[in-house]
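RECORD TYPE: protein structure
NAME: Dihydroflavonol-4-reductase
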Amino acid sequence: MTQIDKSKPVLVTGANGYVASWLVRKLLKEGIKVHAAVRNPENSAKIQHLVEEAEAQPGELKFFKADLLQKGAYKAAMEGCELVFHTASPFTTDVKNPQEELIEPAVQGTANVLNTANEVDSVKRVVVTSSCAAIYTDAIDTVKAPGGQLTEEIWNTTASLAYQPYSYSKTLAEQKAWDIAKAQDRWDLVTINPSLVLGPALNPHQTTSESINILKMLGGGDMKMGAPRLGMGVVDVRDVADAHYLAGFTPQAHGRYITSAHNSNFLEMGLALRPKYGKQFPLPKKAIPKWLLMLVGPLVNKLFTRQFIRNNVDVPWKADNSKIQNELGVQFRPFEETMEESFQVLIDENIL
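PREDICTED:
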């Protein structure tokens, strides 16, 4: 049982990120002093939305410059904090050198933050943003899991540097976090493992996320002839931020938490948008057949290898989210609300 004093500052790494921005907003709303660690506090385009939040909310905000790959870079920001949220990590599938662009930042960054927690006596709890990608690689893994669904006990054993390196990076980074946490007994570790995060971005023009790319593909006509039933979980960014907050301040929070609201696929996402946006945008109406994807997929998108299509298309994705609901009281937004509000931001900001 770890009791966190809300009068002490709280550190958020990668504070201007997609999930982290909502978390910072929540902390400020609760009147908490936030130490926001970002790569470049001088870049106003990337932090202005947080400055505006701080002006509107009772909490305080202080920026710190910190680089994931620099040892000790987070020490100044961590001093005096009992609670650390480590959210900073690369999320992209378009990489030339996965070792350099994904594995090293994810693993070394995690090690840097947690080793610093070992040096800063005030720290009592670290909440790390992991991913369902540390539990599975392909939808077929969820079908093959005990009971036919993902649980917190399962670890990803099918990703590698050559196949799905993003999932591999998240697995290695979370394993590193648990290794460091288990080697000491002053602070405890909690991990949040979201599936695909959708929902409105607080800073849409600066949010470089696969989530926005997927919405652009759905609304931009890439899938107007049909969308693949590509099995995946979906969760709202605001629910993920709340999950972090509750993981930080619930004394009995422990271990890993699958943070996924809906078992879904690309076609379902497109169909959820059709009632409101179907007249304006070339949203998909039907599924693209798997055999056709096997033929053209590898030509259209290098991620759509035959192995990937075989393991994910027309394969249901299932995860058990009962732990986070029962232990932290997280309640998830309806699927349609998440889809529509994500999409509307892209329209409002002329991204679509």
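COMMENT: The beta strands are 10-13, 33-38, 60-65, 83-86, 125-129, 188-194, 196-198, 232-236, 255-259, 262-264.
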